[in-house]
Amino acid sequence: MWTIPDWKEPRDWFHGTTKVGCLAGEFYECVDILHVGNKGAVSGFAAAAFPNKSVDGLLDAWLKRGSLGVSPFKPDKRCYIKIPDPVEGGVLAELQPTFANLIPFSRVGRDRTVYGQWPSTATAPSTVSPEMESASAPVSSPPQDTLPVRVTWAAPFERLKPLMSTMDDLYAHACMRSIAELSGTDEAGARAQSAIEAREWLSQGQSTVARAWLEPIISEEGEMGALFAIASRFGIEANSLADALSNASLRKELGHPMPVQRAWGVPGLMWGLLLDRLNGSESFKSCKVCGQLISGKADKRFCSEEDNAECYRARRREDKRRSRKGK
Which of 307, 305, 311, 268 is nearest to 285 (CA)? Predict the structure, then answer.
């Protein structure tokens, strides 16, 4: 579903097998609708952007330092996006960069790293929307004495990112890290705070049984897995998925509405996964060496190679050094 400035018609059309909708809006916006199954499988037009078409492991990757950051922005670099067109299938449109958010510097570290902070002081009221609260009148060139940067996404999120990210993404990421750290000592408090912070990103929605239940099963388990699931749930047996879907009774069942939790964007998905983890009484722990958040067994104390390869290898080297010294 797109919104495009000054769009007239049509409201929707098919591009191949994909239905495209388009409405007039203030900005260029695109919403890809995907469904996540009970086992984490992702189905939908952009499902291939997810590692193994699944959300497994995404929350742990998101909570790591460096999954979101900032990088220099070149205002003279032209930026294009492909917007839908009912005849051509898609046309290129140039986006003009504007500068609207001003985040004050809070300090400069010994390594000359510059730190920004919003709200501007620790005593200021908590922010609700950093993007809106830090906005000034947009201009076409960086304001004087400022450092133009943009939010960047690291693997595996670089394929899931929108064209431009915002301070709201950084704020949501920081909130989730703080809540995950809190869960190690106050699980109930972390769960309550997470439910409050996630309200702007999650809502109740409605889909169909076909899209919310069957399609993720097909994505993860293939045709045979879907046939077993259909036989188990509806008592309808078939030799192929095509045969099953030719059954009028099954098509009626698959067309029934099904309640879903709607998550907006990557931060919304991460809030949903975080709530699921905390509601399942799975708290987070920190590595005793580097302090990074880790997941796994309750007695786990240090980073595994998957958590932080650098920390893991450094600890292994130290273990070997101690072992040789003991001999």
Answer: 307
Tokens representing 198 are 């996630």
- Alpha-carbon gap, residue 82 to 263, rounded angstroms: 24
Cα–Cα distance between 266 and 159 in angstroms, integer? 11
* Other C-beta atoms lying within 10 Å of the C-beta of residue 310: 11
Structure-token match 């580097």, residue found: 290
What's the pTM value of the predicted model, to 2 decimals?
Answer: 0.78
CA distance 170 to 314: 29
How far apart are the C-alpha atoms of 106 and 91, rounded to whole Å? 42
CB 182, CB 196: distance < 8 Å: no
Retrieve residue 229's tokens. 């699931």
Q: Which amino acid is at 134?
A: S
**pLDDT tens for residues 108-149?**
888 887 777 777 776 777 777 777 777 777 776 777 777 777
- Using the CB atoms, write b or e for 134-158: b if 16+ within 10 Å: beeeeeeeeeeeeeeeebbbeebbe
The whole-number average pLDDT for the span 89-107 is 70
Q: What CA–CA distance (Å, rounded) separates 267 from 129? A: 14
Res. 93 pLDDT band, cuts 50 70 90 = low
Helix (H), strand (E) at residue 272: helix 265-279
* DSSP 8-class letter at 156: T
Q: Cα(255)–Cα(209) distance, rounded to whole angstroms?
A: 6
Nearest to 170 by CA among 186, 157, 181, 185: 157
Q: Which residue has the tokens 């300090």?
A: 107
Q: Which residues contact 239 (CB under 8 A, 6 or more apart)?
A: none
Residue 307 CA to residue 299 CA, distance in Å, equals: 15
Note the pLDDT of residue 97: 65
Round to whole Å and give the CA distance between 211 and 217.
10
